[in-house]
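Table S2 (text version). Query chain:
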Amino acid sequence: MSGLRVLKPGPQSILQDAGRRGWQHLGVSPSGPLDGHAAAWANRLLDNPWGTPLLEMALGGVELLAEVDTWFALCGAQVSLSVDAQPQPLWTRLPLRKGQRLNVGFARSGQYAYLAVAGGFFATPVLGSVSVQLREGIGRALQAGDDLACRPAAFSNAASVPWPYLPDYRRTPLLRVITGGDAVSFSEDQVQGFFAQIWQLSPQTDRMGARLLGEPLTPPKRQWSLGVTRGAIQVPPDGQPIILQADHQTMGGYPLLGWLHPLDQSRLAQCPAHHPLRFTAVSISDAQADLGDFYRFFRR
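Corresponding structure-token output:
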């Protein structure tokens, strides 16, 4: 099956779908897109079902050659987008004809851009998912000469995401946190200190975890490990919190201050190194309501 041929792969471009669920008991993380919001919009613009495989591009710098007539959408980081050197809008469903070149420039704000095509990309699943997990050696990043298989497709018109739903990745985000886990074992001034200060995102951040830099916290001692999920906020002995991301480990022994709101994990993923971060508390019931609204809209 033909599709899009990779001419320039960019720093790190990998296929992602809804994630590899049901394998954490064997030490396999779920993966999936770091920015689930942008990925969901890219697929929705093309009427793709939830979790249809798409391409996650770190920072951009990608060039593709179309070998079929199809439609595509690019959502996420603020990158330049062109087809045969003609500028194109982001967050929009657009046609791509056989023989045309699609160019994605490097990000001016944000970190990850998501390229979806009508019907999605086709790849051989591993443990039920095509999501690439480089740390565990599941799949690999794109290389020049690779083919992204997809079927021909057509729509009658373009469509765009309404502007109120477009994020501004340059702003300092206020990220919501559900306190819990070992939070009751932290002293009150340590919990208040976490929410009171402005943190910075460490350059050591990756798909496994987002590391924070700031006034260190003093965590309680913990003598056992337990299962962890995406969004868990671990506080290691150095007092600099780590927020687990899509490729997180499945067990952890550091004390947990709580969990990042599931919908704010996407916003965190788009922050560059040294970007300021602020946090505020949210109830689990409010987080569940927000997530329910999100799923009702995108998982139709």
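Notes on Table S2: DSSP finds four helices and 21 strands in the chain. Residues 12 and 58 are 5 Å apart (CA to CA).
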